[in-house]
Design a protein that fits this description.
single chain, Rossmann fold, globular, binds 6-O-phosphono-beta-D-glucopyranose, 16 helices, six-stranded parallel β-sheet, Dihydrodipicolinate Reductase, domain 2
């Protein structure tokens, strides 16, 4: 049977993430039969809720799914609420009792999943108590899920990791990066290692540059306090973009397994060329959105200081010093209040070295000889698919060429059936498969790269705000590519 058996304990069970992502994802796993009779969920947080109230919260979280009411009630009956102060030993004793009771009642075989969906400064305390109060079992599996942010810089990430390591082995720790649960991010490995044409060309002999764009239309919304201490570099680049970069640049894993992929990703991240502080300004651009008549500027948002220097936009050039990638710039950018909400990756190939079709050009061997570069675009969202730009002959007389576009998109049914990132990742955790999670070494190398940039920025005042909402960021982000003779494929 495909049924998975486990007790989930969610720290932060009243929170936004639990309601927006976790409960709907668990419900979908229930609808698909991965969770049936043998599962239970303990939600903990400080508020004093009753089980009845908790069931209502869970049911409300599913409202947008328009599911059968009886099915929702049956699902919600597996949920138990326990008010919990994570620093109070007494509460862990109560938690242990409840866990054992549910384990017996639902025949959970000692399988436990602990989901830490709350402020990271408590992760260490929680882990320590889970061990000291014997909430971890001997007879089943114990897995812990850590939400981002995993640290604030390398030092704090290491402290957090050391604390977790006192209780859990690396293979019991699942660090969530929800981008790794996205269909098209998982597709990177499939297209690279499943197609001779791509893997043969996937190097500095054929690729001119690579562009990764994670664009958001919304502003900072409700997360001002967290975001203002973080900024776009920490919020999006250290984790999501570095993970995407490692998947794009890693060598072929010996087998498509967690361990082999991890080895290759770590090799790629270790090959990042670290910047010296004095190189940061030339290679990384930061931005913050300005007010318009209709939209608040970042500094006018609720709970943000009017003098805040937090970056809401980053663009950067990343170089990888290895045989495959030496000389190929990877341009990355992400920001809030940009032109649109989308994620895309553009692989820009080198142009044909000569244009035999147009002898009129002053220099048909020049960098821009009238033949557009081939571009392979991976559309991650909202469209899921691929585009390939190539040059073809204009219809009719003569031999003028023009770029044409080959497109493949997942059809609506496939896209609708594609599980949401959290559903996919929870399923992986139930299966004990950490392929699509971030491993410690990856986190460590990403932070080391990011820390230099952040430090330089902290030491130098920006002139903010510097970009208009609805654009693709400050002019400097375009100049960054122009200085190398390149331009963003997506201009906005
Ligand atoms: C999160 C960031 O990790 O990713 C948010 O903290 C951001 O600031 C979000 O909005 C974007 O995720 P998605 O899946 O909507 O692209």
């Amino acid at each position: 049977s495909k049924e998975k058996i486990a007790l989930f304990t969610i720290f932060g069970g009243t929170g936004d993430l639990a309601q927006r992502k976790l409960y709907p994802s668990l419900f979908k796993l229930y609808q698909k039969g991965y969770l049936q009779d043998h599962f239970a969920v303990i939600g903990t947080a400080r508020r004093p809720w009753t089980d009845e109230h908790y069931h209502q919260v869970v049911a409300d979280a599913l409202a947008s799914l328009h599911a059968d009411a009886d099915q929702v009630t049956a699902f919600a009956s597996h949920f138990y609420y326990q008010s919990h102060d994570v620093t109070d030993v007494q509460h862990y004793i109560t938690l242990k009792r409840l866990s054992e009771k549910l384990d017996a009642q639902y025949e959970l075989q000692g399988n436990r999943i602990f989901y830490l969906a709350m402020a990271p400064n408590f992760f260490g305390t929680i882990a320590r108590h889970l061990k000291s109060e014997h909430i971890l079992t001997e007879n089943g599996f114990n897995r812990v899920i850590i939400e981002k942010p995993f640290g604030h810089d390398f030092e704090s990430a290491k402290t957090l990791n050391d604390e977790l390591a006192e209780t859990f082995d690396e293979n019991q720790i699942y660090r969530i990066d929800h981008y790794l649960g996205k269909e098209m991010i998982q597709n990177i490995a499939a297209i690279r290692f499943g197609n001779n044409i791509w893997e043969s060309l996937w190097n500095n002999r054929y690729i001119s540059n690579v562009q990764i764009t994670l664009s958001e239309k919304l502003g900072v919304e409700e997360r001002a306090v967290y975001y203002d201490n973080s900024g776009a570099l920490r919020d999006m680049v250290q984790n999501h973009i570095m993970q995407i970069l490692s998947l794009l640049t890693m060598d072929q894993p010996v087998e498509f397994t967690e361990d082999d992929i991890n080895i290759e990703k770590v090799k790629a991240l270790r090959s990042l060329r670290p910047y010296q502080p004095e190189e940061v300004a030339k290679n990384f651009v930061r931005g913050q959105y300005a007010p318009t008549e209709t939209v608040k500027g970042y500094r006018q948002e609720d709970k943000i200081s009017p003098a805040s220097n937090t970056d809401t936009f980053v663009a950067g050039k990343v170089m990888i010093d290895n045989y495959r990638w030496s000389g190929v710039p990877f341009y990355i950018r992400t920001g809030k209040r940009l032109a649109d909400k989308f994620t895309r990756i553009d692989i820009v190939f080198k142009r044909p070295v000569i244009n035999i079709f147009n002898h009129e050009l002053p220099d048909n061997q020049a960098a821009d000889n009238g033949l557009a570069p081939n571009v392979l675009t991976i559309n991650v969202e909202p469209t899921e698919g691929f585009e390939l730009r190539m040059n073809a002959k204009n219809v009719g007389q003569g031999f003028a060429t023009t770029p044409v576009q080959l497109n493949f998109d997942h059809d609506a049914t496939a896209a609708a059936n594609s599980p949401e990132a959290y559903e996919r990742l929870l399923h992986d955790i139930l299966n004990g498969d950490a392929t699509n999670f971030t491993h410690w070494q990856e986190v460590a190398y990403s932070w080391k790269f990011i820390d230099v940039i952040q430090q330089y920025w902290d030491d130098h005042q920006p002139s903010f705000p510097n970009y208009k909402p609805g654009t693709m960021g400050p002019q400097a982000a375009a100049d960054l590519l122009a200085q190398d003779g390149h331009r963003w494929v997506y201009q906005g």
